[in-house]
Amino acid sequence: xxxxxxxxxxxxxxxxxxxxxxxxxxxxxxxxxxxxxxxxxxxxxxxxxxxxxxxxxxxxxxxxxxxxxxxxxxxxxxxxxxxxxxxxxxxxxxxxxxxxxxxxxxxxxxxxxxxxxxxxxxxxxxxxxxxxxxxxxxxxxxxxxxxxxxxxxxxxxxxxxxxxxxxxxxxxxxxxxxxxxxxxxxxxxxxxxxxxxxxxxxxxxxxxxxxxxxxxxxxxxxxxxxxxxxxxxxxxxxxxxxxxxxxxxxxxxxxxxxxxxxxxxxxxxxxxxxxxxxxxxxxxxxxxxxxxxxxxxxxxxxxxxxxxxxxxxxxxxxxxxxxxxxxxxxxxxxxxxxxxxxxxxxxxxxxxxxxxxxxxxxxxxxxxxxxxxxxxxxxxxxxxxxxxxxxxxxxxxxxxxxxxxxxxxxxxxxxxxxxxxxxxxxxxxxxxxxxxxxxxxxxxxxxxxxxxxxxxxxxxxxxxxxxxxxxxxxxxxxxxxxxxxxxxxxxxxxxxxxxxxxxxxxxxxxxxxxxxxxxxxxxxxxxxxxxxxxxxxxxxxxxxxxxxxxxxxxxxxxxxxxxxxxxxxxxxxxxxxxxxxxxxxxxxxxxxxxxxxxxxxxxxxxxxxxxxxxxxxxxxxxxxxxxxxxxxxxxxxxxxxxxxxxxxxxxxxxxxxxxxxxxxxxxxxxxxxxxxxxxxxxxxxxxxxxxxxxxxxxxxxxxxxxxxxxxxxxxxxxxxxxxxxxxxxxxxxxxxxxxxxxxxxxxxxxxxxxxxxxxxxxxxxxxxxxxxxxxxxxxxxxxxxxxxxxxxxxxxxxxxxxxxxxxxxxxxxxxxxxxxxxxxxxxxxxxx
RNA sequence: GCCGGGAUGGUGAAAUGGUAGACACUCAGGACUUAAAAUCCUGUGCCUGAUAAAGGCGUGCGAGUUCGAGUCUCGCUCCCGGCACCA
Length: 832
Description:
- This protein is an alpha/beta fold.
- It has 28 helices and 30 strands.
- Helix 1 (8-20) packs across helix 24 and helix 19 crosses helix 20 (629-652).
- It is flat and about 100 Å long.
- The chain binds one RNA strand through helix 7, strand 10, strand 14, helix 11 and strand 26.
- Pfam families: Anticodon_1, tRNA-synt_1, tRNA-synt_1_2, tRNA-synt_1g.
- GO terms for molecular function: aminoacyl-tRNA deacylase activity; ATP binding; leucine-tRNA ligase activity.
- InterPro entries: aa-tRNA-synth_I_CS, aa-tRNA-synth_Ia, Leu-tRNA-ligase, Leu_tRNA-synth_edit, M/V/L/I-tRNA-synth_anticd-bd, Methionyl/Leucyl_tRNA_Synth, Rossmann-like_a/b/a_fold, tRNAsynth_Ia_anticodon-bd.
């Protein structure tokens, strides 16, 4: 029959070439008359490894959505670019003895070729590269605005330091195991002067505005937890012998009467001043021990709290009781005030510590109902700890008060201050490496830190021979004296440039804005373009960015919104995280395990169309799946069958499409449309497979016109083969009229429903048989329930007893409730 | 410990409270072939039964609501992801 076989490599090569000559197919226009759709997928870090299967998955989801939207008449912005700055490129360049610029250009070229091979319909007219000076001049400009508003400050502080990358890191870049999220090296603490962005100033709005966006619940919760907002109060305790004051933060001011000691973090600035001479030696030893512990070791030792007594006391402002001051590393320097009031009776950590060091435990809350008598008595005797609410006891004037209302009463009474604290840390923004945006600041010994004049932007990276990082925590840029030495923009005297660079998260914090107007030389994007295209309508990316890129970019966007530069308070109207593709052994794909699947190898075997469809067909987009080569075969078979049907049709030329096929076609159009909108790509593909099965099961009785509608809905998923078959069938020849420029087919409501309805018949809720009735009869309850057409099997079950109820749910089901004598007896027994 | 998400055949998975297992993979049998691959056809949740007819069981566990529960409610167990001495 068919002389030609499905040969994906041949047709994909051909259309890749043709599409390259018609980039306008994918161009978004600044056309206010048209309705826009901004579909964004996270731009890749162009590493030496090339595109991986995870990229392909996310980009295919975006591509299907973009193509579908175009066919539905939207003016679609579906852009792509390169998140090119960062450590891996720099390390790769060092290894290969080339410059990072060369490494980047090389990798970008590879990625571009691979993306074209996958058939992604990106608007390359708007391509961006974060390491391009024309791009990063605006990244630097935003930094200067942050500085001007006091949101970028230089501070000397202990920071997370990666000894392998020889650079400081943000809190978000350290995993919960205390490792650098990029290279897996245990992170150390180091004192350095760093630029810090005050993301905490936006903490409340970053939480609150989550209500205004469509993110899945897990993303919202993860961001909320990461920001970690706690309401509480600050109290001041006066240290005895006039040794100053200690401020603590607590979320439970009501437990103040039960506070029996104070704990300072080892790094707390008051420790040296308040330590008594007898305790000096012990405290010093403890602190130096704590310093050597990494973050990982500290949290590993959770169960084993240690500390030392300083030899000094404070007075409890409520009870007048004497409270010893301890130093312990279970109290963190950088949360709250770095000091706590310990209430062992009502806090598990304090309880454990008090037990170990034999400190007094004083219960002040009598538990509410729901606590057993036994438990209550162990609590009231100080043998256990209770963190819930209840009635105040042993609390003087507050006795009998409910613990919740006691909170503000206590704060007021002793002159505390209600405070909100966050787990979120300010964003450490300096990196001591070469391959990043230079921070556009100058230091003058007379004038201090000043931004470079905006007219000098971009401050470009000077060429450099030696990229090796330094041990002392300064950037390799510090070695380029002619670049470092400059004049003060204020007094004209000698000054030095900042030699640290920005983290790789900088460029990606605003890139979606640049796509709106990527060639603009005067501003990051024109107001007009942003008003039209923003916000992003759908943003697809990886879950690993939830508390990194996603949070950072929301922060920058809100800052730009406050400056009146961007038109929306939130950058992304809808965000979906895709799952992970694992290796076939179920483990994570990694170079070291040697189990990485290279998507281009798969393209060579089965073609890009099959690879795209396989990844979408794996299952729901947010789940994780191991790589399964035999399932890939399944979609390849599907495409071959599509190919063969098309070939057969060209010969047979059917006039009228068989009714069953026609109805299935319209049902499929409807199903595929709804599923793309819901991102249920797997069931959309299943529906197209069902359609093919229907066509084959009914002797291929479909005419070319109806078949073409199927090619249209196939086009977003398998753009190459759909184009090939569309062009074969068109036969017009002369001018190129792409399948991807066609209008999405509509479905006929009357054809979507079947002519007959199959209704399940149940007896006592148990399925027994079905009856088939014409659609016109679904409303005729009497007729349906009294029909003699019931199957014998059903009648048999009904005959076992007496019908006590008949239920007909229109078009859905029939249920006969039958009382069976035996059953009735047992029921009566039960009731009796 | 806290937060979020899950648990359905041999496998990946479908199922607005209404025929559980669509679609695909795997496997078995058959066709084509000298043979294999590819392709096509048939079967494929478990149990009883004869490979039939028919029946029973079945969506992690235990209760509940309902004429009817994979789906809703309550209580558990386990798995995955995130956070974790956050006062």
